[in-house]
TrEMBL record:
InterPro entries registered for this protein in UniProt: AAA+_ATPase, AAA_lid_6, ATPase_AAA_core, CbxX/CfxQ, CbxX/CfxQ_RuBisCO_ESX, P-loop_NTPase
Compositional bias of kind Basic and acidic residues: 643-656
Family affiliation: Belongs to the CbxX/CfxQ family.
Region Disordered, residue ranges: 368-390, 639-678
Protein name: AAA family ATPase
Superkingdom to which the source organism belongs: Bacteria
PANTHER family with a match to the protein in the record: AAA-TYPE ATPASE FAMILY PROTEIN / ANKYRIN REPEAT FAMILY PROTEIN, AAA-TYPE ATPASE FAMILY PROTEIN _ ANKYRIN REPEAT FAMILY PROTEIN
AAA+ ATPase domain: residues covered: 439-578
Keywords: ATP-binding, Nucleotide-binding
CDD domains hit by this protein: AAA (cd00009)
GO MF terms, alphabetically ordered: ATP binding; ATP hydrolysis activity
One Pfam family hit: AAA_lid_6
Amino acid sequence: MADDVRSPRVLDVLAAEKPWEVPGDWLARVRRQLKAWADDPEALRPLRPEAFPDFVKGTPAAVWYTHQVAPLLTGWIPVLHGEYADLSTELTHEFYRPSSRLGGSGHVIHAAPTDWHLQAIAGARGFRENGRKHALQLSRNVAALFVDAPPMAARATALTAAFDRVLANREITELHITGEYDDIAKYWRTDALNDAERAVLPELAGPTAALRYSLNAVRDTHARMLMVSPDEYAGDFAQVLAELILATGLRGIPQSVANILGDSAIDVHKALQDLDPTFTLQTWHGHINQWMSRAIRNGQAPLARSWGAAAARVGVHLSGVLNNAAWPEPEVPDLTTLFRMLDRERWSALENQAASNQEASLSAAWNDVKKEEDKSAGNASGGTLDDALPKPLDFSDNPIAELDSLIGLESVKDAVRRMVAEVKTNLRRAELGLPSHERARHMVFVGKPGTAKTTIARLLSRIYHQLGVLEKGHVVEVDRSDLVGAGLGSTAPMTAAKFREALGGVLFIDEAYSLTPENTPGDYGLEAVATVLKLMEDHRNDCIVIVAGYHREMQRFMESNTGLASRFPKLLSFSEYDTDQLVGIFELQARQKGMIYGEEVLDKVRAVIPPAPRGHSFGNGRFIRNVLEEAVSNQATRLSASDPDKLTERDLRELIPSDVRPPTSMRAEDYLLQKPGT
């Protein structure tokens, strides 16, 4: 591509909201300063150039230090992409002569000890006092180089201010000049930063603080992603952390992580037990990539970037990179695909801008690429691939349309439509100053596993959020283990915490009947029920509670407490799916994933569905989801034998009959001809 149509050269820091188009004058200014340090005899005096591998003779410590810390000023364990991903080499190319360099369109992850900012000071420990003071001053000056570079500005400004306070305080300066390094490091971990600076440089407080920051970042970004882009497979924080642990190759929670999680480690341990038997990295990557792609398409690229950066950071912690263990392989999460999606959005934006300015060069170049792809892929109709292949279904902005698309569940759909009509009518009454005729919105869902109870709860939450009834529209899914403590006095606080987490959304209590086991007087579950009822009264308009489980067991549950029936005026019954409906569910879920298929594939799906009557614990829609996931995994294995550069869009989206097999996660109960539950 010619220089005049080339896209801007950027430094793309994953944790940042968008790539930074690096100004040529900024780059030149930094390089001039490095050259000035190299030409300053005073700057060379305390150095030992022979100690710097791959650097030319005479390189000053300031240049070496710039090379070490520039990437780390973009964030803790940063992921860098773009033309300036190898930022250190770009800045110090006159001095740095490595045997190999980063090339192509890849990315790089930087990890370092939490005292990375003290490298020059640590290296000057053998120097005399003047040399050690010089190391302190150059540490400050290098940080100040980046205060006007957007991806580094906040951290560089905070670090510069901290060094300035050290240099302004005679006693602290003396510590850095004459003190033991351990005392210097301790000062930086405990006293060097104020609260605002610690917020942007959290790792300087030490490894435990860095790990806590990384875990909290995953928790926060995951919750925000679920709020703006609900996903059936994403799960809660416990699930995503369990998936990160399994994806890294571990089978249990590292002790350092467990210490920070506290009681929450129980939830992660439970998620690990549930996921471990069926977890595959390929399937998980596929789910996450689809989720990220949908978020990016819907204008949530900054949040998707934050999620990816936080997950990658925890992946590095889990892999033990900071303890010189093996680098995570493959990467967790799939950063290559994430950057490809982000680049596609960036290039598309550039195309639109070029078109609006009637500058067609970039657009024409990108169209040439797409034409070549279409030409190589081809299609039966002779049109483009976009014309030939159906678009993936996407209901992220229209929960009502997603409700209508669900297979079966006609009575449930009708009940939801009536509830929506009731809300709209009451909203109009309120606008006209008329009294409302609204009933409590809490509900009972009864039905077997996999009959879309959780799906309907999520759709209801999104619908009520769009109507303005719920502030957030999220769903907090819990069961007995989340609400009932092991000892006296622990249940009420646990239950209240989960209820507070659900405020503004839906609290979904699965297998609610387990809170009131038969013939167990004094069970702590009764306290959980009483606590929920009290909080429902206190927050009657702030949260919808849905209790779910089997028909017979839920009837017993509703009779266990005299206050339950009146608090849950709506009951939705979820019927078991017949074989045709299960095949229809496969088609719907495949289309949502963007997959295409022929009738032979559907015949194969029909063949792997157990005949009726099915077992009491048969997974219904969950079973079909496993069939589809297994088919996608088998397709990937089949395609891995082909040249990836020759794979077309149709190849990547098409399932064939041999891809469909009984899922490896299928339980024996799925095939047992037990008497169905009632």
